[in-house]
Amino acid sequence: MKNFSKTKFIKYLLIISTNVFLFVCLWFLFDLFFYSYSLKKANILNISNLLKMYKTEFIYYHDSEDFFSGKEDNKGRAPDGTEYKNSEPIVVFGCSFAYGHRLNASQTFSRKLSEKLKRTVYNRAYCGAGFQHAYKQSLSDNFYKTVPPSKTVIYILIEDHFRRICGETFFLYDNYLNIHYKYKNGRFIEDNYNNFIYRFLKSSYLLKYIRFNLKFRKFLNPKNFDEISDEALAYLVQMRNNLEQHWNNKINFIVLVYDKGDITDCLIPKLQKNGFTVICVNNLANENMMDIKYQTFDVFHPNEKAWDLLTPLFIKELKSINAL
Fold first, then answer.
1. What is the pTM of this model?
2. What is the per-residue pLDDT for 142?
């Protein structure tokens, strides 16, 4: 009887172990599929890049010396505007809209702004970024080594930035940019990535997908709009404080709202109350800037026609309120 029980135990143990092994294999294949799909969509699918994705996700080197330094070879870093000697610099933050996704450097907002104002514009936007990433840059010593003290900062805001607070996004660039901050009791706390198991659970595409769908419900519930907008405000306020402290000067922080929705409407008065200058592109142009005629061929992102229309109107508005 004892031998039978021992045999039975070993049998069940083998069954459980086999099922766990198969589950992990399926998990790995699921992640492999999504990583490969992301790379294929960006037309850079190969073994080297696939390994790089895994290295980035599981080794977690987002805070490496190079990432936020603004070097030319960094992913997502748009070229600076034309260098105007002795000009007062401007710094632009944001996501792919500000970066100029699908645009040549000469077609971007930062370059057009630079040439019209005859001032150097440092574009520090990244595809897939949001409030957390701009905040993270304001903490980086490397950022301050490449960007001189500035008195004018522009953050280009789209509604999707709020979603990026609540959950994960599934684009190639986001794999390189996830910073995993939590806002708790008025403080920002970064996840502890020293533990491999914890790092794996936060990095797996499968778990990202599950976590995103759970958190996304929060984003859709109007009861949470005030809380979400408060967190976004906290990121921008603390980011401004960090910049002013490092640069030792007051800055005019301008939030250019490109695409807005209900949560943005909740945030705007809070920004204004806290000393931010808020400008909405639809008010500038008196038309819907998300119309397809103002989008790149892969839709949603501003094309050159959009920035040709908006840039002079934006400058005119800033001058009218003495914000430039």
1. 0.81
2. 78
